[in-house]
Amino acid sequence: MKKLLIGNEAVAWGLYNGGIGLVSSYPGTPSTEITEFLAKHDDIHSEWAPNEKVAMEAAFGASLAGMRSVCAMKHVGLNVAADPLFTLSYTGVTGGMVVCVADDPAMHSSQNEQDSRHYAIAAKVPMLEPSDSAEAYAFARSAFELSEKYDTPVLLRMCTRIAHSQCVVDIGEREEVPLKEYVKQPSKYIMMPGYAKQRHPIVEERTEKLKALAEDCMYNKVELADNREIGIITSGCSYLYVKEVFGDDVSVLKIGMPNPLPEKMIRDFAAQVKKLYVIEELDPVIENHVKALGIAVTGKSLFSAIGEFSQKTIREAFLKEGYPVKDIPEAQGDAPAVPGRPPMMCSGCPHRGMYYTLVKNHITVLGDIGCYTLGAVAPLNALDSTLCMGASISGIHGFNAARGKETEKKTVAVIGDSTFMHSGMTGLVNIAYNATNSTVIILDNSITGMTGHQQNPTTGYNIKGDPAAKVNLEALCKALGINRVRVVDPYDLKACEEAVLEELAVEEPSVIISRRPCVLLKYVKPKTPLQVDMDKCRGCKKCMKMGCPSISFKEGKARIDKTLCVGCGVCEQLCAFGAIGGKNE
Amino acid sequence: MRTMSVMIVGVGGQGSLLASRLLGTLLTDEGYDVKVSEVHGMSQRGGSVVTYVRFGEKVYSPIVTEGECDYIISFEKLEAARYAGCLRKGGKIIVNTQEIDPMPVITGAAEYPAGVLEELKAKGFDIDDFDALTPAVEAGSSKAVNIVLMGHFAKCTEIPKEKWLAALEKVINPKFLEMNKTAFERGYGA
Predict the structure, then answer these.
(1) Pick from A148, A335, A484, B101: CA 20 to 30 A from residue B45's CA?
(2) EC number(s) of the enzyme (chain A) (predicted)?
C-alpha cells in the first residue's frame, strides 16, 4: 500500500508493522503524531503518560514483560527521561524497545536547540536517523529486531523537517510478535551496584558489536561518484540538501546510524576523495568522530551549529569554497520589508483575562511551557521567565526564598493543567514542605493545548477519547500540603483580581485554579461576537492592552472583527464608556 | 523535468495544511515524486505559516529557498509580500486580497503596508490577486478560502479539473465535500 505520509506517520506504521504492543508518551512538537497515529490501532495498548520519564518507564515495564514497546518525545522530553535511559542501557531489554526522539533545529516550537545524538553517545545506545518518510518507515520497522538482537533500547532520531514532511511510503503488513516468556533475572534487571558493575562491561562489549554492525548495515551507505574532488559525509535532512544541490555528481557517505559511527567505512571513504566535508545540523558529532580518527575534515568552520540547513546553505558554503555550483536559481526580486506576524494567544483564550489582571497589578510572573507562554509577547508582556516544564513552580519557591517579603506579595507562578501533571506537582510539594509564601496559578484550560489538544489526567478522557479517571486539582493541591486552594473563571476580571490580591496578601502558600476550557475545543461553542458602539468609543485604547487579535484600532476607534471574536466578554468589562457590547449595531 | 516548487502561505488557522495535502495527493496520483513540508505547533497559532510542495521525477529537499518557487499561493496580502523573495524569475503569485492585521499592527507598533501588491507588480512580479473570501462565504463557509484558492490555482496547471475533484474527495471529510466542491468551482471560475 503506497501512501503520502508525514515522517511521524511513517514511523508509526513502521513500529506497528514491526510488532509494537505498547506505546506510552507525553505529547511534544514535533513528535506528537507518532503516538497519535499508533493510538488509532485498537490491537495495541496506547496511552498518554503524565511525563516522558513515566512514559519511558512504562515502556520498560512492557519490555520487561516480553512485549515490544515504544515511547516518543521531543528533544527536551529526553532530558526528563534521561534517568531511566542511562540505566536501561545497562539492563537491556526483553521485548524490543524503541525510544523516538524528535529534535527541533531552528526552534519552530521549542525553548532550545538540542542535539539528541549526545544522549545516544552518553548512554551508549544505538541511534538511527532517517532522511525522509520512506526511511523513517524502514528504520522504525527494523528497530525492534536491532533492539532484541543487541539487547538494548534503540533511539530513533527525528527532526522537525523529517517529522513533518511528506513523501510516498510503501507500507507492508504487520508482523505479529508473541510475548516473550517472562523470566526473573535479578542480575540483569536490578541495577544496584553489585549487579550494575557486572553489566557495564556488557555494555562496552555491545558497543564493539554495534561498531562492527555500523560498518555493514542498511543504515549507512556510500554513494561513490566519478567526481572524487570532494567527498561529503552527511546525515538526516542534510543528506537531502546535499543531493538537491549535487545530485549524483559528488561522492557521499550517508550516515543513518549516528551512534556508534563506523570507523573503517569513514577511513575508506576519506581515502577515496581529495577533500572531505561533514555536513550535519546542530553539533559537530560526526565531525568530531572523524577528527578523532586523525582524518582532516572541514565541517563547522564552514557550516553553522545554529538552526536548520537548506539547499541554500550548501550552495553558499561551496561557492565560498570556490567550488563551482550548478543550477543556482534566479529570483524574481527581493521581498519588501513587512511587519512580522508572530504567533499569539487566540481570540477568547481563557488565559488572557488572568494575564491582564497580573499585568494590571504589576505582578512578577514566573512562567512555564505551553500556549500560555505566548503571554510573554507584546502587548501583554506578562512573563518574567520560562525555563522548562514545571520550572515556574520550583522557580518561584527559590525566588521567594531569596528575597522573602520583598517578592512574595507580588510574585506568582503560572502553569498549565497538563504541565502541572507533567512536573508541577513535585514543585508544589516543595513549596508546602519547605514553606515559602508562594502563590501558584494553575491555568486550567482542560486540555494539552500547545501540541494540538491531547487529553491529560485532568481532562477525564484517555488517548482514545474514552472516559478515564480525572484528577481533582483542588483535592490534589490540598493533599500536597496547600491549605488555600480556590477556583476562578478567568473571563471574570473582577473575580480574578480579587483572588489574586487576596492570595498574595495572605501569609501562607496558595493555589488559584484559573479554570475555563480552551476556546478551540469542539464542545466549546462561541458566543455572539461583540461590537463597538462608535458613538460611545472614546478611542482610549484600554481594550487594546490585552492583545486580543479580534480588536484593532482604525480611524481613532476600536473595531471588533466579527469573524474572529468568540464573545468572551473580557473587553466589555474593560471599557469604561460602555462602548463594547453584544447588541449594539 | 526539473523539480517544480509551490509555496502555500498564510496565517495560522486559515487551512493551508489542508490545501497542501490536497495538492500533494493530486500530484502523487499524477505519478510524480512528491515532497510536502509543513511546520506544526506554536507557529500555527495566528502566526505566519508556510507549506512547501515540491514535485518532479526525483525530489530530494522538502523545502524551498530564495528564488526557487514557481508558484506562491497566498491566503493573505501581507504574507504574499513576506515570501515574494522565494519566487523564481518567471514565477507567479496567486493571492487572496484579504487583509488580516498581525499583532504589531494591532498594537500600533507597525502599519499594515498600503499598496504592497502594487509595489510588487511595479517590481515586475506576476501577481494574480482576487477576493477569495466572498466566494468562500457564498459557497457556505469563510473557512473554504483555502479550496477557493486551490480552485483558482488549478487553472494554472495542466492537470484536468476532474483529477482535482477526485483528489478533493480523498482529502475532504464527506460531510463538507459538497461545500468544498462549490468553493473549488468558484475559485476555478474566478
Answers:
(1) A335
(2) 1.2.7.8
On chain B, the residues whose CB falls within 8 A of the CB of A326 are none
pLDDT score for B107 = 82
Average pLDDT of chain A to the nearest whole number: 96
The rounded distance, in Å, linking the Cα atoms of A497 and A357 is: 6
Examine residue A526 and say whether the peptide bond preceding it is cis (omega within 30 degrees of 0): no
- Is residue A60 included in any domain, yes or no? yes
How far apart are the C-alpha atoms of A4 and A31, rounded to whole Å? Answer: 18
* Cα dihedral: A262, A265, A267, A270 (round 10): -120
- Residue range(s) defining the domain that contains residue B50: 4-189
Q: Which three cell numbers stand for residue A121?
A: 553517545
Q: Which three cell numbers stand for residue A75?
A: 528533544
Q: Chain A contact for B10, CB < 8 A?
A: no
Contacts of A329 in chain B (CB under 8 A): 65-68, 88
The per-residue pLDDT for range B108-164, each reduced to its tens digit, is 889 999 999 999 999 999 999 999 999 999 999 999 999 999 999 999 899 999 999
Same structural domain, A226 and A210: no
Query: Domain containing A433 — which CATH number?
Result: 3.40.50.970
Do A284 and A408 lie in a common domain? no
Tell me whether residue A504 is in a domain: yes
| Contact check, Cβ <8 Å, B45/A341 | no
Strand order in the sheet with B126-130: A2-6, A165-170, B33-37, B48-56, B4-11, B69-74, B87-96, B126-130
Residues A511 and A562 in one domain: no
Contacts of B43 in chain A (CB under 8 A): 108-109, 343
Asked if A342 lies within 8 A of B102 by C-beta distance, the reply is: yes
From residue B119, alpha-carbon distances to A345, B50, B77, B124 in Å are 32, 22, 12, 9
Say if the Cβ atoms of B42 and A343 lie within 8 Å: yes
The DSSP H or E segment spanning B105 is: helix B103-106
Q: Are A366 and B66 in contact (CB under 8 A)?
A: no
Residue A443 lies in a domain: yes
Confidence of residue B42 (pLDDT cuts 50, 70, 90): low
Residues A310 and A444 in one domain: no
CATH number at residue B178: 3.40.920.10
Of the listed ranges A118-132, A343-357, A382-396, A570-584, the one predicted with least confidence: A570-584
> Which chain B residue lies closest to A7 (C-alpha atoms)?
B37
Residue A311 has pLDDT above 90, yes or no: yes
Mean pLDDT of the residues in chain B: 94
| pLDDT tops 50 at residue A386 | yes
A4 and B34 within 8 Å at the Cβ level: the answer is: yes
In B, minimum Cα distance to A369 occurs at B42
**Inter-chain residue contact A451 with B102, CB threshold 8 Å:** no
Q: Based on the domain organization, do A357 and A488 belong to the same domain?
A: yes
Residues in chain A with CB shorter than 8 Å from the CB of B59 are 167
- Is residue A584 scored above 50 in pLDDT? no
Report the pLDDT value the prediction gives residue A390, as an integer from 0 to 100. Answer: 98
Residues A139 and A106 grouped into a single domain: yes
Residues of B in contact with A328 (CB under 8 A): 67
> Given an 8 Å threshold on Cβ–Cβ distance, is A341 in contact with B78?
yes
Structural domain count of chain A: 4
Q: Distance from B142 to chain A by nearest Cα, in Å? A: 8
User: What does the pLDDT read at residue A271?
Assistant: 98
Which residue of B63, B85, B126 is in closest CB contact with A335? B85
**Cα–chain center distance at A24:** 15
A200 and A230 housed in the same domain? no
Residues of chain A neighbouring B47 (CB-CB closer than 8 A): 341-344
The answer to whether the Cα torsion of A29, A30, A33, A34 is positive or negative is negative
- Looking at the structure, tell me whether residues A178 and A270 fall in a common domain: no
Domain range for residue A550? Answer: 531-581
Q: Considering only alpha carbons, which residue of chain A is nearest residue B105?
A: A339
Look up residue A419 and give its amino acid.
T
